[in-house]
Automatic annotation (TrEMBL):
Gene3D superfamilies (alphabetical): 3.30.40.220
Organism: viral metagenome
Protein name stated in the entry: HNH domain-containing protein
């Protein structure tokens, strides 16, 4: 069986499976196409944002205006604030469920803003741009709080800003060891 992954369009994944029918006709192949569209977040339609509004530079500017408590309110500030508070609430529920919540040192909204700003909304591990607002469900470049010590909750001093992809890949690996593998460059000579 031969698998071929084709990513022609950023919204559509196409998997072509080549399979032989029987031993007599080894040359005949059946091509099955499975087209799977990436799921879009339902709430993004209500935001009324365009591609420019969702780019990294624009989101960084909005983050800075919120951090500086800029009196100029725009339609994005409330969306940003509610999204960040929502995610913090999810982290709190996760800590409660795992019995790791420490009310005194649990991260708060202002601390998250400072972490996002100090990282320039770039992942601690891979240095890729991250997004606060995104269109796709399970967007790999969405921001997340990665716990340095996974035995402790989402407490200030135990967190780094990371993209969802690196956060999920790191699992329980040592933070520094994982960062080393992300920055490792392998070059081949003589081939």
């Amino acid at each position: 069986m031969d698998y071929n992954l084709n990513l022609e369009n950023s919204n559509i994944k196409k998997i072509i499976i080549n399979e032989t029918i029987n031993k007599k006709n080894n040359n005949k192949k059946i091509i099955q196409e499975k087209v799977k569209e990436k799921k879009m977040r339902v709430e993004t339609k209500t935001w009324g944002l365009n591609d420019t509004d969702l780019n990294h530079e624009t989101q960084l500017n909005i983050l800075n205006s919120i951090l500086n408590k800029n009196s100029e309110k725009n339609k994005y500030n409330s969306i940003f604030i509610s999204h960040i508070k929502n995610k913090i609430s999810s982290y709190k529920q996760q800590d409660i469920l795992k019995k790791r919540l420490n009310e005194q040192s649990f991260i708060n909204f202002d601390e998250v803003l400072k972490l996002l700003n100090s990282s320039n909304m770039k992942c601690h591990y891979c240095s890729e741009e991250m997004y606060i607002l995104y269109e796709r469900v399970r967007e790999l470049k969405q921001w997340s709080l990665d716990r340095v010590n996974n035995n402790i909750g989402h407490n200030f001093g135990n967190l780094v800003i990371a993209c969802l992809e690196c956060n999920l890949k790191r699992r329980r690996t040592n933070k520094d060891a994982f960062m080393f593998t992300k920055n490792l460059v392998i070059t081949r000579e003589g081939l």
